[in-house]
C-alpha cells in the first residue's frame, strides 16, 4: 500500500466503524407489527373467549379476546402481512365476516366494550351502530374507543 492510499483507507475504515456504531446504538428486541400484534392476541384456552380473528396471507391467524384490540390492530399503520380475512363473533354467538357486521358499544360498569351485531335489529336497543368501514376509519384515526 502506498503512502498516498493510506489516508483514504483509514478514512474508509473510520467511516465504516462509525456507521456500525450508530446502527448498533439503538439495537434491541424487535418491537415491530408482528410483536405488537402477538401482544394483543387472546391466549385464553376457551374458544368462546375469542371475539375476533384476523387471517393474513402468510397463514398467520391472530385471535383476539376483545373487538377493541382487534380493531386497534387493524387500524395500525403496519401489519404482519396482507389481511385476507377478518371474522367476528356476533352478540348471538355466530361467526360473521367482519365487513358484514354492525358494531356498537355495550356498557359494563365503568368500561364499555365493542360488540358485533348480525343485523340492524340491535340498532333500536343499542343506539347508533357503525359499519365495519366506519369503525375501521375511526380506529385508524386513533379514536377506536371513543365512538
Indicate the structural class: alpha+beta
Estimate the helix proportion, in percent.
Answer: 25-40%
How would you characterize the largest beta sheet? 4 strands, antiparallel
Q: How much of the polypeptide forms β-strand, as a percent range? A: 15-25%
Apparent shape: elongated
Mean pLDDT: 75
Order of helices and strands: HHEEHEEEEHEH
| CA gyration radius, whole angstroms | 24 Å
Unreliably modeled segments:
22-33
Number of DSSP helical runs: 5
Q: How many β-strand runs?
A: 7
- Sheet with the most strands: spatial strand order: 2-1-3-4
Overview of this protein structure:
By secondary structure, the protein is of the alpha+beta class. It contains 5 helices and 7 strands; from the N terminus they run H-H-E-E-H-E-E-E-E-H-E-H. A hairpin with a 2-residue loop joins strand 5 and strand 6. The chain is elongated and about 80 Å long. About 8% of the residues have low confidence.
Amino acid at each position: 500500500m502506498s503512502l498516498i492510499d493510506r489516508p483514504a483507507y483509514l478514512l474508509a475504515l473510520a467511516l465504516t466503524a462509525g456507521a456500525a456504531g450508530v446502527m448498533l446504538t439503538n439495537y434491541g428486541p424487535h418491537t415491530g407489527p408482528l410483536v405488537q400484534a402477538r401482544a394483543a392476541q387472546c391466549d385464553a384456552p376457551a374458544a368462546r373467549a375469542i371475539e375476533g380473528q384476523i387471517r393474513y396471507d402468510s397463514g398467520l391467524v391472530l385471535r383476539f379476546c376483545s373487538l377493541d384490540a382487534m380493531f386497534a390492530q387493524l387500524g395500525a399503520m403496519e401489519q404482519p402481512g396482507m389481511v385476507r380475512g377478518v371474522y367476528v363473533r356476533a352478540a348471538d354467538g355466530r361467526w360473521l365476516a367482519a365487513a358484514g357486521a354492525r358494531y356498537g358499544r355495550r356498557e359494563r360498569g365503568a368500561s364499555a366494550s365493542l360488540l358485533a351485531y348480525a343485523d340492524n335489529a340491535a340498532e333500536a336497543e343499542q343506539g347508533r351502530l357503525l359499519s365495519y368501514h366506519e369503525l375501521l376509519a375511526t380506529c385508524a384515526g386513533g379514536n377506536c374507543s371513543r365512538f
